[in-house]
Design brief:
The complex is a heterodimer of chains A (769) and B (231). By secondary structure, chain A is an alpha+beta fold. Chain A is 39% helix and 22% strand. Chain A is globular and about 85 Å long. Chain A starts with a helix and ends with a helix. Chain B has a single domain, classed as Class I glutamine amidotransferase (GATase) domain (Rossmann fold), CATH 3.40.50. By secondary structure, chain B is an alpha/beta fold. In chain B, the strands form two sheets. A nine-stranded mixed sheet of chain B has the order 2-1-3-4-11-10-9-6-7, sandwiched between helices. In chain B, strands 5-8 form a two-stranded antiparallel ribbon. Chain B contains five helices and eleven strands. In chain B, 23% of the residues lie in helices and 25% in strands. Classes of the chains: A alpha+beta (769), B alpha/beta (231). At the A-B interface, helix 10 and helix 12 of A face helix 1 and strand 6 of B. Chain A: Keywords: ATP-binding, Cytoplasm, Ligase, Magnesium, Metal-binding, Nucleotide-binding, Purine biosynthesis.
Chain lengths: 769, 231
C-alpha cells in the first residue's frame, strides 16, 4: 500500500499531460486565484496549466507579489516627479531597492518591507526572517548592507497576548540582526489596540556601494548559467501550495509544512560575504534573492527583466527534504538563498569563491534567447511559459473605492466638540499630565527594546536611537554619510489618510534635517486593511496621493517601497499605517547634531508656530482615550525652509542640539532633550501662549508640525537669530539649559530628572521584561 | 608591527578590530579560519561575532579551526593574543583561559556602554592603563555570563588574574563581576566588552565631554604595540 502511494506521488503533471487532459479540475480557487484569472492563464498557455505552472502563477499573481490592487496608485510615485528629482536616482521603483547617488562615487540603496502576518503567527521567526529578507534585497543591488531599522506596531500594552508578540518580535530582530553584524540604528514602536490581532513588523535596511558595483536582477545573455546557491530548499513558507500537495499525496500522509519560514542568520552572514566577494571578482551578470514566491519569482523575474528565457532542471535543486514535490520546490520560501546568472567562462572562479565560503550551490540550467521559461523535472517538462506573463503582466485591478461611512462623524468628533477637559492653567494637574504622558507606553523610553540590538558593529554609527535619525558613515576617508528616519502616525491617518501620509513624510523629513543631513529620497511601507473593502481602498488612494504630492512638493523622489494589505483583526482593519522613510546625506558625519542638550547655560529656542491642534494627539489618547477630529495642518514649504535653516546653521556649527516636536509635542521634546545627556533646563511657556494665542495645554501637548527645539551657545545667539529672520522662520527663546538635575516648566511643575528618568525607563520592562 | 585579525565564518567585528589596530599605529593582517600559517604576525586578535553561528556552544567550533591550532601553540610560547567577546569564548573553549561563558542571566542580548575597572596592568594588552583605572567601552552579548568552579575562582582571584571587572552594573550575571581575564604569563587576555568600538572620536561611547567621544579602547592596542617594542 505504501509503495502504491509513493508511485502516485512521483507522478508529475507534465505539459504534455496538461494538453491531453484539458478538463481536469484544478484547485485554482484554493490557491487564491479568481476564475477570470485562471481563465487568463489558460488563454496565455493555450491549454490548462500544469500543477507546477498553476503554483507559479498563483503565487506570482498574489497580492503580495503582483501588487494587483495597488499598482494603479503606485504609478504616481514614478509620475509625480521632476527631472531635478531624478537627478540623483540611479535606480528607481520596480527593482529590488532604489539606488541613490550620494556623491564621491558612492551610492546607497535602501528599502523597508513588511513581515506582518508571519510575525503574528510566529513572532520570533516572522520578525527574524523579515530582517533577513530586506537585507537580501539590499545585497541584491550589489551593495554591502550597512544598517537596519525596525518599525513595530503592537496591540494594547496590557492585553495578555501583547507580551508574547513583543518579546518574540524583539528577540527575533535582535537574534537575526545582531548575528548578521548590522547595526540597528533606529525605528519606531507603537502600541494601539487596532494592531492586537495584526501587529506590524516592518524592517528597513540600507546598503552602500561604489557606482560601478551596481547589480541588477537580469538574465539576458544566452548561455549564461543559472545557479542557485546558499541554504538548501526545504518546506518553509509553502502553506498555500499544500492543496497541490494534497492532490498528489494522500491527505493522511506526512503533515504538510510550516507556513512561516525559519531563519539562519549565520547562513545569511556567510552568504553576504560570499556575494560581495563574487561581485568584486566580477563573475555575476545578474543576481536575485529568493524571498516571497522563491524560485517561481527568481526565475521568472530574472528572465523577464532580461527579455530572455531559461531552461531549468528542477531536480538539480539541493533539498533539505527529498520528499518535496516540484510544486513545493517552486513555491518554497526557504531563507538565505540567492540565484546568480554567471557567464560560462567565469564558472571556475564562481565555484572557487562559493567553495571558500563553504556555501552550497547547484547549476539549475542556462539562459536562452527565446523569451520562454522551460522547467523540467528529470526528463519531463512541467513548466513552459512566457516569463513576463508570470512576473510582470499579472492582473491589475481598479478596486471599488468608497468614502467611509463613519468618516464625517469621526472628523466632527473633535477635542473641541467633545469639550474634553483641559487641566487648569496654573495647577499641578498639568504637571501630572506631563508625567502621565511621558511615562505612558508609547512615549516612555524604548531602551528595553533598543538595548537588545547591537548599534556599534561596523564602527560607523554616528547617530542611533534615541536620536531622531540613525546616521552611518559611508566613507571613512571623507566622513560622507547617510541618515534615515522613518515615521507613521496611524491615528492621524485614520482621521485623514491624505494628510496623514504627508504628516509622516513631514516628520521623517524633519527628523533627518535635525540631525544635520540633507533629505534626498523616500521609501515607504504601506500597511492597510483589505483592498476588497472599498473604504480601505479609499484610505489607500488618499494616502498614496498625499505621499506622492508631498514628495513632489519637497522635491525628493520615492525610490521604492512595499505594500501590505489585509492587515485586520476579524473584519476590523488597522488604522492605515503608511510608514515613510526619508534618506538624508551629510558631507561629513562629524557635523551631526544630537537630540539633547550637551552643555549647561545654552539658550533653548522653539522654531515654528504652535496651534490649537490636539485632535488625534497623544494627549487626547492618553488622557482621554479619544480619537476624532482633524489632524494637524502640514506646511511642506515651511518644512523645507526649516530643514534649510538647520542645514545652514549646522554648517556654521551654531547648533548644539536639535530635536523635532511630534508625538506629545513640546512636553515630550523637552523631557527627551534633558534625558539625552542628563542635563537640566528651565523653561517658560508664556511667550508661546501669548504669541500663538494658545493655552498651556496646547503649548505643552499640541502636535503642530514644523517645529523644532534647538539649543544654542550664548555666543552664537545673534548669528542664529539672524539666520532665522533671514529665512522667515518664527523663533522664540523659551528657556536655558542648566545642571540643576531638574526640569522646571515655569507655572506648571518642576521635575527631578533622575526620578522622572527612572519612571520613563521602567514602563516597558514592567510590562514585558 | 603586524597584528593578525582572525575571521571565522560568522565573525562580525573583524573590520572594526583591524581599524582599531590601524588607529593605534599597527598594521592589521587578515587571517582566515582555514589558515595553517600565521603570516609572521607579532600578535593576534580574535574579534567578536557569532563564529560558525554559535552552533554547539559559543566558540566551541572555532576552537577546533585550523588557525586556532597554530594560535594555541604560539600563545603557549608567548604570542600576545586578545580575545574579544566571541574571541574570549574561543579562548575559553581553547583552554587558553579558564572557566566558561553562559547565557546572560536576564536571557536577553544586551548592548550598553559599560564601565570597567582595569585590575591588572602587567599584560601585553593593558600596560598602557594605570592600575584600577575606570574605563567605559561598549558591551554587547547574549552569552557573557562568566562562570568557574569555586576553586578556579579562588585561584583567579588569588593569583590576580582577573583583569577587568564590571562597575556599577553587572550586565550579565558574571561571577565576581568578572569582565575579563589574563593568563599567568600575561600574553593572553580575554574580555566580553568591546575595546575596538571605543577607538575613534565620534563613534565610541558618550562621555561627559561630547557624544560618542570615548576612546578608552585604543589603549588595548597601544599596549600590545608597546609590549612588542619593549620585548
Amino acid at each position: 500500500m505504501a509503495l502504491f502511494k509513493k508511485k502516485i506521488a512521483s507522478g508529475v503533471d507534465t505539459t504534455a499531460n496538461a494538453a491531453e487532459t484539458p478538463d481536469k479540475a484544478q484547485p485554482w480557487k484554493e490557491l487564491g486565484l479568481k476564475l477570470e484569472e485562471y481563465e487568463r492563464i489558460v488563454e496565455i498557455l493555450g491549454r490548462r496549466p500544469t500543477s507546477a505552472e498553476l503554483a507559479m502563477y498563483s503565487v506570482m499573481w498574489s497580492e503580495h507579489c503582483s501588487y494587483k490592487s495597488s499598482k494603479i496608485y503606485l504609478r504616481q510615485f514614478g509620475e509625480k516627479v521632476t527631472d531635478e528629482m531624478k537627478k540623483h536616482l540611479m535606480v528607481g521603483m520596480g527593482e529590488n531597492a532604489g539606488v541613490v547617488d550620494i556623491g564621491e562615487g558612492w551610492a546607497v540603496t535602501f528599502k523597508v518591507e513588511s513581515h506582518n502576518h508571519p510575525s503574528y503567527i510566529e513572532p520570533f521567526q516572522g520578525a527574524a526572517t523579515g530582517i533577513g529578507g530586506i537585507v537580501r534585497d539590499i545585497l541584491t543591488m550589489g551593495a554591502r548592507p550597512i544598517a537596519v531599522m525596525d518599525q513595530l506596531r503592537f496591540g494594547a500594552p496590557n492585553h495578555p497576548d501583547t507580551t508574547r508578540v513583543v518579546n518574540g518580535v524583539v528577540s527575533g530582530i535582535s537574534f537575526y540582526g545582531n548575528c548578521l553584524g548590522l547595526p540597528n540604528i533606529g525605528g519606531e514602536t507603537v502600541f494601539d489596540r487596532v494592531y492586537q490581532g495584526n501587529p506590524l513588523v516592518n524592517a528597513l535596511s540600507i546598503g552602500a556601494l561604489r557606482h560601478e558595483d551596481l547589480k541588477l536582477a537580469i538574465a539576458s545573455n544566452p548561455g549564461d548559467l543559472v545557479i542557485l546557491f546558499g541554504a538548501r530548499t526545504g518546506a518553509d513558507g509553502i502553506g498555500g501550495v499544500s492543496v497541490l500537495a494534497s492532490e498528489t499525496f494522500d491527505s493522511d500522509g506526512p503533515s504538510r509544512r510550516p507556513a512561516v519560514q525559519v531563519g539562519d542568520p549565520f547562513a545569511e552572514k556567510v552568504l553576504i560575504e560570499c556575494c560581495l566577494e563574487l561581485y568584486k571578482a566580477n563573475v555575476v551578470a545578474g543576481i536575485q534573492d529568493l524571498g516571497g514566491a522563491g524560485l517561481s519569482c527568481a526565475t521568472s523575474e530574472l528572465a523577464s527583466n532580461g527579455n530572455a528565457g531559461m531552461r531549468v532542471q528542477l531536480q538539480n535543486v539541493l533539498k533539505r527534504d527529498e520528499s518535496l514535490t516540484p510544486e513545493e520546490i517552486l513555491m518554497s520560501e526557504s531563507q538565505e538563498r540567492m540565484m546568480a546568472i554567471v557567464p560560462k567562462k567565469d564558472r571556475k572562479k564562481f565555484e572557487a569563491i562559493v567553495n571558500k565560503w563553504e556555501v552550497e550551490f547547484s547549476i539549475l540550467g542556462e539562459v536562452i534567447a527565446e523569451p520562454r521559461l522551460y522547467i523540467n523535472w528529470g526528463h519531463e517538462e512541467i513548466v513552459n511559459v512566457p516569463p513576463r506573463t508570470v512576473a510582470h503582466d499579472g492582473p491589475v485591478y481598479e478596486r471599488p473605492v468608497a468614502f467611509p461611512s463613519y468618516q464625517d462623524a469621526l472628523n466632527a468628533d473633535s477635542v473641541h466638540a467633545r469639550g474634553l477637559y483641559r487641566a487648569n492653567e496654573s495647577g499641578s494637574d498639568l504637571g501630572a499630565q506631563v508625567w502621565q504622558i511621558v511615562t505612558s507606553p508609547n512615549q516612555a523610553s524604548k531602551s528595553w527594546i533598543t538595548d537588545q540590538y547591537d548599534h556599534y558593529v561596523g564602527g560607523n554609527t554616528a547617530l542611533a536611537m534615541p536620536d531622531d535619525s540613525g546616521m552611518i558613515r559611508v566613507s571613512e576617508t571623507s566622513g560622507l554619510g547617510v541618515s534615515i528616519a522613518t515615521d507613521a502616525n496611524g491615528r492621524f491617518c485614520q482621521l485623514d489618510p491624505y494628510q496623514g501620509a504627508r504628516l509622516a513624510l513631514a516628520e521623517a523629513y524633519r527628523n533627518v534635517a535635525v540631525g544635520g543631513a540633507k533629505p534626498m529620497a523616500v521609501t515607504n511601507c504601506l500597511n492597510f486593511g483589505s483592498p476588497e473593502n472599498p473604504e480601505v481602498m479609499w484610505q489607500f488612494k488618499q494616502a498614496t496621493a498625499g505621499l506622492a504630492d508631498g514628495c513632489l512638493e519637497l522635491g525628493i523622489p520615492v525610490t521604492g517601497g512595499n505594500v501590505s494589505f489585509y492587515n485586520q483583526t476579524g473584519d476590523i482593519a488597522i488604522h492605515p499605517t503608511p510608514v515613510v522613510g526619508v534618506l538624508g546625506v551629510i558631507d561629513d558625519v562629524a557635523r551631526r547634531i544630537p537630540s539633547g542638550w550637551q552643555d549647561a547655560g545654552n539658550n533653548i529656542y522653539l522654531l515654528g508656530v504652535t496651534r490649537d491642534e490636539l485632535d488625534g494627539s497623544v494627549w487626547a489618547d492618553v488622557i482621554h482615550d479619544h480619537l476624532g477630529g482633524r489632524p494637524p495642518v502640514v506646511d511642506l514649504a515651511h518644512e523645507a525652509a526649516l530643514a534649510d535653516l538647520l542645514h545652514g546653521a549646522s554648517l556654521q556649527g551654531l547648533i548644539e542640539s536639535a530635536h523635532d516636536l511630534s508625538e506629545a509635542g513640546l512636553a515630550q521634546a523637552l523631557v527627551e532633550s534633558c534625558f539625552r545627556f542628563n542635563m537640566g533646563a528651565r523653561v517658560w511657556l508664556d511667550e508661546i501662549c501669548e504669541r500663538d494665542n494658545v493655552d498651556r495645554t496646547c503649548a505643552l501637548f499640541s502636535e503642530s508640525t514644523g517645529r523644532v527645539l534647538v539649543s544654542i551657545g550664548r555666543e552664537d545667539d545673534v548669528k542664529f537669530m539672524g539666520l532665522c529672520e533671514a529665512r522667515g522662520i518664527p523663533v522664540l527663546r523659551i528657556g536655558v539649559t542648566d545642571d540643576s538635575g531638574e526640569i522646571e516648566i515655569q507655572d506648571v511643575s518642576t521635575f527631578d530628572l533622575s526620578e522622572m528618568r527612572t519612571a520613563f525607563k521602567a514602563t516597558l520592562p514592567a510590562l514585558f521584561g | 608591527m603586524k597584528i593578525g585579525v582572525v575571521t571565522f565564518p560568522g565573525t562580525l567585528d573583524d573590520r572594526d578590530a583591524a581599524r582599531a589596530i590601524r588607529l593605534a599605529g599597527g598594521e592589521p593582517v587578515s587571517l582566515w579560519h582555514a589558515d595553517t600559517k600565521l603570516q609572521k604576525v607579532d600578535a593576534v586578535v580574535l574579534p567578536g561575532g557569532f563564529s560558525y553561528g554559535d552552533y554547539l556552544r559559543c566558540g566551541a567550533i572555532a576552537a577546533q579551526a585550523p588557525v586556532m591550532q597554530e594560535i594555541v601553540k604560539k600563545a603557549n610560547q608567548g604570542l600576545p593574543v586578545l580575545g574579544i567577546c566571541n574571541g574570549f569564548q574561543v579562548l575559553v573553549e581553547s583552554h587558553l583561559l579558564p572557566g566558561g561563558l553562559i547565557r546572560n542571566e536576564h536571557q536577553h542580548f544586551i548592548c550598553r556602554d559599560q564601565k570597567l575597572r582595569v585590575e591588572n596592568v602587567d599584560t601585553a594588552w593593558t600596560n598602557q592603563f594605570t592600575l584600577n583605572q575606570e574605563i567605559t567601552i561598549p558591551l554587547k552579548n547574549g552569552e557573557g555570563g562568566y562562570i568557574a568552579t569555586d576553586e578556579e575562582l579562588a585561584r583567579l582571584e588569588g593569583e590576580g588574574l582577573v583583569t577587568f571587572r564590571y562597575l556599577d552594573v553587572n550586565p550579565n550575571g558574571s561571577m565576581n563581576d568578572i569582565a575579563g581575564l589574563r593568563n599567568a604569563r600575561g600574553n593572553v587576555v580575554g574580555l566580553m566588552p568591546h575595546p575596538e568600538h571605543a577607538v575613534e572620536p565620534g563613534f565610541g561611547p558618550d562621555t561627559d565631554l561630547a557624544m560618542r567621544s570615548g576612546v578608552d579602547g585604543l589603549q588595548f592596542f597601544k599596549s600590545v604595540l608597546n609590549a612588542l617594542v619593549s620585548a
